[in-house]
Amino acid sequence: VTAEGDSKSLEARVHVVTLMGKMHLLVGRELSDVLRAQVIIARAMTIGLFFTVLMGLLWGHVMSGKLLSRLEQVNRASREIILGGTLSRRIPVSGAGDEFDRLADNLNEMLDRIGELLTAVRQVSDNIAHDLRSPLTRLRSRLELALLETPDPASQRQAIEDAIDQAASIIATFNALLTIAQAEAQAARGGFERLDLGVLVNDAAELYEPLAEDKDITLTLNTAPGVLVPGNRHLLSQAVANLLDNAVKYTPQGGRIAVDVRSGPQGEVIRVEDSGPGIPREERENVLGRFYRLDQSRNTPGSGLGLSLVAAVARLHGARLLLEDNGPGLAVSMIFSGSSGQA
User: Fold this and answer.
1) If DSSP codes are grouped into helix, strand and coil, which group holds residue 329?
2) Are 110 and 123 in contact (CB under 8 A)?
């Protein structure tokens, strides 16, 4: 109710109680204190809301400035890398461990990988130019010599056969490079299927048994049945063929070669052992590179790409490649992850 008196208007809350004898008891309380409290609370909430909004805007401005600064650092570094060609430049990392640091780490890892690939491309280009210069020069010299000589069917036939051999060697080098590139590009994963390593190794060994017999080399196969891995049939066959080719090529007359396929605690294993000269421990990492040849093998036919291809195929299949002493000779093992399982 509202009561007026002495030129004042007061608000109060009242309660009427009916008593005996038609009498009424009126109990009331003035609400001015409550109203003042409501006004104070309303003002406080208004002021608090204002400062909350203000602080939110200021904090948002500061945070957006930091975010934009971090983004600008990434953009600036990206522009310098892409437009300036400075692949040694890296995205700065603040050390806060936030999403921007994780993004910067991922981009830096990508740049490291791109740098490695470009370095490999440059090395391969240099190696191709160096290693193909000699066979191409010999090919041209023999053809020019055939033109200068007195026409003779026998000599011309010999010159043509030599030219064909040189061209075949060059084509084989390019095919090996293409196979390595295919394996390193990971594109061959789309052709993975369940393979029996024993069957695959037996098929490859059949091709090299005549070559081994010509050198009186004892070729022993020990292939366990049912050793299965997911893989690319063509690339794995090529890798096994390269291992057998190296073993036959460098094993002396009357030597021995042992090929083992088994499944053990470490996973599925293909192991090729020979009794040749072996590879010194300090050179085992180098021979996995492209076009690398040891001094004692420079007079042996080959391009220096055999073990490089095997290493690329092993990486594609998640396998470890181990080169060990065989006392005498070399033992090469491809150890596949045990997760491939044996069925």
Assistant:
1) coil
2) no
Q: What is the pLDDT of residues 91-132, one digit of tens each?
A: 777 777 777 788 888 888 888 878 777 777 777 677 667 667
**Last residue within a domain, chosen from 184, 207, 224:** 184
Nearest C-alpha neighbor of 166 from the set 309, 306, 295, 303: 303
Question: Is 295 strand, coil or helix?
Answer: helix
Number of separate helices (H) and strands (E) present in the chain: 6, 10
Cis peptide upstream of residue 328 (ω within 30 degrees of 0) = yes
CA distance 76 to 80: 6
Q: Is the pLDDT confidence value at 76 over 60?
A: yes
Q: Could you say which of 184, 203, 237 is where a domain stops?
A: 184
Which CATH number characterizes residue 200's domain?
A: 3.30.565.10
Terminal C-alpha separation, the chain = 91
**Regarding predicted confidence, which is higher, 92 or 201?**
201
Question: In angstroms, rounded to a whole number, what is the distance separating the alpha carbons of residues 107 and 70?
Answer: 14
255 and 298 both lie in a single domain: yes
Report the 10 Å Cβ neighbour count for 46: 10
pLDDT, mean over the chain: 80
Q: Residues 300, 250: contact at Cβ < 8 Å?
A: yes
CATH of the domain at 153: 1.10.287.130
Looking at the structure, tell me whether residues 14 and 57 fall in a common domain.
yes
- Global confidence as pTM: 0.58
Whether 204 and 170 share a structural domain: no
Give Rg (Cα) of the chain.
Answer: 41
| Whether residue 29 sits in one domain with residue 147 | no
Is residue 281 included in any domain, yes or no?
A: yes
Domain coverage including residue 133: 104-184
Burial 149-171 (b: 16+ CB within 10 A, else e): eeeeeeeeeebeebbeebeebbe
Burial classification of residue 320, based on how many CB atoms lie within 10 Å of its CB (0-12 exposed, 13-18 middle, 19 or more buried)? middle
Query: Does residue 99 lie in a domain region?
Result: no
